[in-house]
């Protein structure tokens, strides 16, 4: 009220002006600028996608479920940028300016596969025409520059691969820093009851069901705190609790080991199947690996849930253990899968070249075969040892070398697709059909379905967030070999947002304990960072140590993929640049630099610790000064 | 628009909501600054406030005449303070007013008991209520007078991590 009167007076005074035209003009410009800023703010808030949907979910289910959707939206933003990079700098130049389909052997479907190349089954499996297109690594030509723009394709491919990883790191760390700032530093243990009393009611709740649940959860939380306060320090049966916890951890470890072994076993079996030819087996055998991984991801968390009921922890601690175990499960599965795949790539010395997998021996044999085949073309037309004009051969007939990068890319794409399918089917069956069943069969069933066993499902926040994080890990791992992965992921996240929003509003009920969203956010970011780091390791390893296939991809013909950088430095930049770079990449210079960075990290860490301690000291002083004032 | 934290579009939307509560009383045209107040009963039936256990207290704290009727300015003020853009200190001031049931500028034990009963819908027993209220006074009371003054309340609430996110109504 007072503020309004003041503003009226103030603006009125300015309107009269002080007679100086320039001053009045400046005031008018300031007002216009402020109006423009307000309009821009209006526009910006209108632009945020899905804002209304998320608000609706927040009011029905509370801030924690909405935080999952906000996380999903943030991931969508990251994936859009990754998609933009790979699409704009890798796929489009190759499609527009590179040699078209059918002009080179690597760009054509081989004659043997041509008959089935257009079948839906083959395309769904990402072979056939899908394999020999810009979607996968193998299609790209190793020509240094393409088109009239002299676009350096291999360099661009390499830099985009490295750039996507770098960008992801940067943005995850930036968000973590921002969250850490917001968290602030409050003492955890003081004001427990006061906060419960004054800040536990979520004013956003507008739904009677949610309100009921919220009242119940507030009551329970008060009762819990009261009981903790009333209880004396003695713990009965401390040995029993300890024993049960050890037992539970042991069971969890067994489950993890069991699932790792199962995956290893299944991948080995699939290699055996490939040896004997895939046509002899049905659908299950062909997709065994993907199905097993998805099923494990579905059932093991519930198993962990059951085990954790043995442990009898405080619910927040139990949740952390649960998250940690599921994390370990997914990580173990992914890494066992990678190792088994890498095994397939590296260990082929023992398996003779019966199937198309990367193998140095096999490469030599194929090269030899190719020279023989070429010679056979010349036989009868031109005598040996003379330069011959190139004979026109249809590229589909040229024998092809193995292309392990495309194979790896295909595996990742198939895994992502099957994971998506499993998630959607789980939502449809687990949530929707269950809700339909409970709603309609309640009338003719012996016990009350809505309160008893099946009842409506709750929204599983941690499971969904972890699924999202691991999916992103797979994308990061595979996008170097299959530039189409970010595009697929953008599509998947888009549909997933709509499907899950619908499913949550339609089939789920608010949780019993309405969970507070504030603290766990940095926990998810930390896991994301960890996954990012782990997923970039395989790609970096292959860039640095494994020679690229000789017959496909933008790096074919080089001994190592990163040689494209040195090639560019030699040919494209002036000579002094190359010299400078040569000096800079000298190990004698790099090692001290790394040492300097490690020391500066240590120093910054030490200063931040000392600041925190100084902060605590000041707080204690304040407290004691206040206490002194009391007396 | 300069006194509140809302954009122009939002203020117009708020006016729409205010209007639909009593179309025959609220004028569409506010340029002549009419003196129209809506009674408390209408306001606390809004969907955003309906489930809130403190709805009457909220409306009372923003009402100028102290009886719970809100003019449009009070209405906009209320939602502006409760929006996510209002600063922490402002929200703390109004939160204090809301939880102070007997309006004596102190949150005393009976205020705490009433707050607790509203929060738990009277599910707790007498001794549990007493225990909680004692604990709250023990934790937050800095000057030792047995009740919470505004300084105590603000000191306590400024350290709360979720105060800003829970003390927030979206409209």
What descriptive keywords fit this protein?
heterodimer, A: 631 residues, mainly alpha, 20 helices, 70% helix, B: 171 residues, Recoverin, domain 1, 2 domains, two-stranded antiparallel sheet, 10 helices, 2 strands, elongated
Polypeptide structure, described:
The complex is a heterodimer of chains A (631) and B (171). By secondary structure, chain A is an all-alpha fold. Chain A has a domain at 57-236 and 407-554. Chain A contains 20 helices and no strands. In chain A, helix 9 (238-275) packs parallel to helix 12 (315-346) and helix 11 (288-311) runs antiparallel to helix 12. With 171 residues, chain B is mainly alpha-helical. Chain B folds into two domains: 8-82, EF-hand (Recoverin, domain 1), CATH 1.10.238.10; 88-166, EF-hand (Recoverin, domain 1, Orthogonal Bundle). Chain B has helices at residues 8-21, 40-43, 47-50, 55-62, 72-82, 88-99, 109-120, 126-140, 150-158, 163-166, and strands at 37-38, 70-71. Chain B has a two-stranded antiparallel ribbon. In chain B, helix 6 crosses helix 9 (150-158) and helix 7 (109-120) crosses helix 8 (126-140). The chains are: A mainly alpha (631), B mainly alpha (171). Chains A and B meet through helix 1, helix 2, helix 3, helix 7 and helix 8 of A and helix 3, helix 7, helix 8 and helix 10 of B. Chain A: One of its GO terms (molecular function) is mechanosensitive monoatomic ion channel activity. Chain A: InterPro entries: TMC, TMC_dom.
């Amino acid at each position: 009220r007072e503020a309004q009167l003041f503003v009226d007076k103030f603006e009125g005074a300015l309107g009269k002006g002080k007679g100086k035209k320039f001053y009045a003009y400046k005031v008018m410009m300031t007002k216009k600028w402020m109006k423009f800023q307000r309009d821009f703010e209006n526009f910006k808030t209108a632009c945020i996608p899905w804002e209304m949907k998320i608000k609706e979910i927040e009011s029905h289910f509370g801030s924690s479920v909405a935080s999952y959707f906000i996380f999903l939206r943030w991931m969508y933003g990251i994936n859009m940028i990754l998609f933009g990079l790979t699409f704009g700098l890798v796929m489009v130049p190759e499609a527009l300016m590179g040699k078209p389909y059918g002009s080179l052997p690597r760009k054509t479907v081989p004659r043997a596969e041509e008959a089935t190349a257009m079948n839906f089954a083959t395309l769904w499996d990402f072979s056939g025409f899908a394999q020999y297109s810009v979607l996968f690594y193998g299609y790209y030509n190793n020509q240094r520059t393409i088109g009239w723009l002299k676009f350096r394709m291999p360099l661009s491919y390499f830099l985009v691969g490295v750039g996507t990883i770098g960008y992801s790191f940067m943005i995850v760390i930036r968000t973590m820093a921002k969250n850490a700032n917001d968290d602030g530093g409050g003492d955890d243990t003081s004001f427990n009851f006061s906060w419960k009393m004054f800040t536990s009611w979520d004013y956003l709740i507008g739904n009677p069901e949610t309100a009921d649940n919220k009242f119940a959860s507030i009551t329970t939380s008060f009762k819990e705190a009261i009981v903790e306060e009333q209880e004396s320090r003695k713990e009965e049966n401390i040995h029993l609790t300890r024993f049960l916890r050890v037992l539970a951890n042991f069971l969890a470890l067994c489950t993890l080991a069991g699932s790792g072994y199962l995956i290893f076993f299944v991948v080995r079996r699939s290699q055996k199947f490939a040896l004997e030819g895939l046509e002899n087996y049905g659908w299950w055998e062909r997709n065994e690996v993907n199905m097993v991984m998805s099923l494990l991801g579905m059932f093991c968390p519930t198993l962990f849930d059951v085990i954790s009921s043995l442990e009898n922890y405080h619910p927040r601690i139990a949740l952390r253990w649960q998250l940690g175990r599921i994390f370990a499960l997914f990580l173990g599965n992914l890494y066992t899968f990678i190792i088994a795949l890498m095994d397939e790539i590296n260990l082929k010395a023992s398996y003779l070249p019966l199937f198309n997998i990367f193998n140095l021996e096999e490469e030599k044999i194929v090269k030899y075969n190719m020279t023989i085949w070429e010679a056979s073309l010349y036989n009868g037309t031109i005598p040996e040892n003379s330069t011959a004009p190139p004979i026109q051969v249809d590229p589909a007939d040229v024998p092809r070398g193995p292309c392990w990068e495309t194979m790896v890319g295909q595996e990742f794409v198939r895994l992502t697709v099957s994971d998506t399918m499993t998630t959607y089917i789980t939502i449809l069956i687990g949530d929707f059909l269950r809700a339909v069943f409970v709603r309609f069969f309640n009338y003719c069933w012996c016990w009350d379905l809505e309160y008893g066993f099946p009842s409506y499902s709750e929204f599983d926040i941690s499971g969904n967030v972890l699924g999202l994080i691991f999916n992103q890990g797979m994308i990061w791992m595979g996008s170097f070999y299959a530039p189409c992965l970010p595009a697929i992921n953008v599509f998947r996240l888009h549909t997933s947002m709509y499907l899950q929003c619908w499913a949550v509003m339609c089939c789920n009920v608010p949780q019993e304990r309405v969970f507070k969203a504030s603290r766990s956010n940095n926990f998810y970011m930390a896991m994301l960072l960890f996954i990012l780091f782990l997923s970039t390791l395989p790609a970096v390893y292959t860039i640095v140590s494994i020679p690229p296939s000789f017959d496909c991809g933008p790096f074919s013909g080089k001994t190592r993929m990163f040689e494209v950088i040195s090639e560019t430095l030699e040919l494209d930049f002036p000579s002094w640049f190359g010299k400078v770079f040569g000096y800079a990449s000298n190990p004698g210079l790099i090692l001290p630099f790394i040492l300097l960075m490690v020391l500066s990290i240590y120093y910054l860490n030490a200063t931040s610790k000392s600041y925190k301690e100084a902060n605590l000291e000041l707080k204690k002083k304040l407290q004691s000064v206040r206490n002194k004032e009391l007396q | 628009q300069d006194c509140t934290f809302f954009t122009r579009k939002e203020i117009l939307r708020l006016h729409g909501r205010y209007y639909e509560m009593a179309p025959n009383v609220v004028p569409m045209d506010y340029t002549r600054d009419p003196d129209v107040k809506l009674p408390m009963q209408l306001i606390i039936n809004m969907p955003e406030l309906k489930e809130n256990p403190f709805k009457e207290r909220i409306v009372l704290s923003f009402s100028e005449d102290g009886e719970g009727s809100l003019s449009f300015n009070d209405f906009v003020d209320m939602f502006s303070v409760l929006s996510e853009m209002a600063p922490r200190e402002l929200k703390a001031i109004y939160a204090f007013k809301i939880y102070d049931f007997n309006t004596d500028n102190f949150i005393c034990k009976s205020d705490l008991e009433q707050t607790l009963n509203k929060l738990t819908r009277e599910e707790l027993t007498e001794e549990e209520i007493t225990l909680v209220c004692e604990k709250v006074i023990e934790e937050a009371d800095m000057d030792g007078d047995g009740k919470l003054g505004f300084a105590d309340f603000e000191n306590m609430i400024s350290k709360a991590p979720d105060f800003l996110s829970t003390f927030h109504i979206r409209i």
